[in-house]
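INPUT
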Amino acid sequence: MKYLKVLVADDESGMRRGVRKVLGKFNLRLENTDEEIGFETVEAADGRETMKILKSQPVDLLLLDYKMPELSGLEILERIKAEKKDVMTIMITAYASLDVAVSATKNGAFDFLAKPFTPEELKRVVEKASRSLIAHREAKRLAEEKRKVRFQFLSVLAHELKAPLSVLESYLQIMKNRTAGNELSDYDHIIERSLIRIDGMRKLIFDLLDLTRIESGEKKRKLENIDLVEIARTSIETLSELARGRGIDITLHAPQKLTMVADRSEIEIILNNLISNAVKYNKDNGKVDVVIESDEGKAVIKVSDTGIGLTEEEQSRLFGEFVRIQNEQTRHIMGSGLGLSIVKKIAQLYNGNVGVRSQKGAGSTFFVYLPFKKEERKNESR
Amino acid sequence: MMADNKKILIADDDIDMLEQLKMQLQGWGFEVIEAESQEEAERKLERLKPDLAIYDLMMENRDSGFVLSYKTKKKYPDVPVIIVTAVTGETGLKFDAGTEEMRRWIKAEAILDKDIRFEQLKREIDRLLGEDR
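OUTPUT
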């Protein structure tokens, strides 16, 4: 159980005792987190004491009497506002006058209680304030978290873009200084490597564009009837040269046609990413199997390779942004580290999901499930 | 040639950074031993003593350069170490081997930004190898 601290500031001791008794027995259940909230009360008999407590300890809710010796409720409200304290104030007034209500709300009070009030009225107001406070804090926490994730993303991105630039710059310097000799052919290797790095950088920028379009929702999605099998065929064809170069066979296992309502470019991104990974992370003369099928209301895309495989720890991190599995075998393979996180994001647009089964050293199978829309039936033809 | 026979161990997990550093060092007449990871550098250190070592800070671990530097010094206290890093410009984290106190825990003679020019690196190497030119 979590406790919220309530400061009862009132010069009538009977009032303070009454509130403490009621709130001491009052619990609140938060439905969405299934959490129980209890209340712990502290008391102040005048305005000065109220400020002292507010300064010395964190207080969540303040039940503040409007008329108190030393410092009035309104003065305290002003100070809380000036010091930007994270406390929710409920004003207690002897007579519910509109004037007091207006000036208190202007100064940041959340709600009112008019004396005399019943235990039920007290609980109702405290409950409302507590829920609002908790929701507010949760929203703040999420915003902060989002800010952090964004900062992290940007700093990694900056690093990933800077690295190839430094590489190119140094290679050019080496050429400029004729460090390796006077013949152009002395620099063939450098030129080859520079082109590879430029390629990698372009891929990163394109992946980044895909990602921001998906995330911002700005890209106009064109949902239409598309044939998954046809897209898979095209994708395999595009990548077959890369595969042939290393003796890798790509085989498609699919019906004649499997249609679903989807955005063509999104499905292309999924298939291109999965199949090119299966080639890149394969062993020479390995195999890639692409399966397209429908299963209980969803389209299934499965891409298996006979490559280097992943440990369980690697599998758990794999779908994050800029995650690249670094080891002896992957060091020479270029990649942006964004591909699989994009695949996952797209699958989520279709209320689908992604996954991987893998064995280190033996190979991996990546699968994507994309549920059909309810009105779609009978998508497959043989 | 002044740099004759001096052996430099270099470690970087970016094969291009490794390649160009090697070319440049060879161009200056050094003998170069390469390592593509912290682990490979550690293995090479077991077998030979370089005259100087240049380590990338972040390889398979975020502090690979520091760890390598520490291990180098433990085995060969007189081998100077240079750490190159891209970290400073990107995160605002600043390491500086300019003070005695920092050198005590970092264990490297110099920490250089990855963007430095080869000439600056050359000056640093000459200083640490005691060549005056």
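end of record. The helical segments of chain B are 15-27, 38-47, 64-75, 87-91, 100-106, 118-128.
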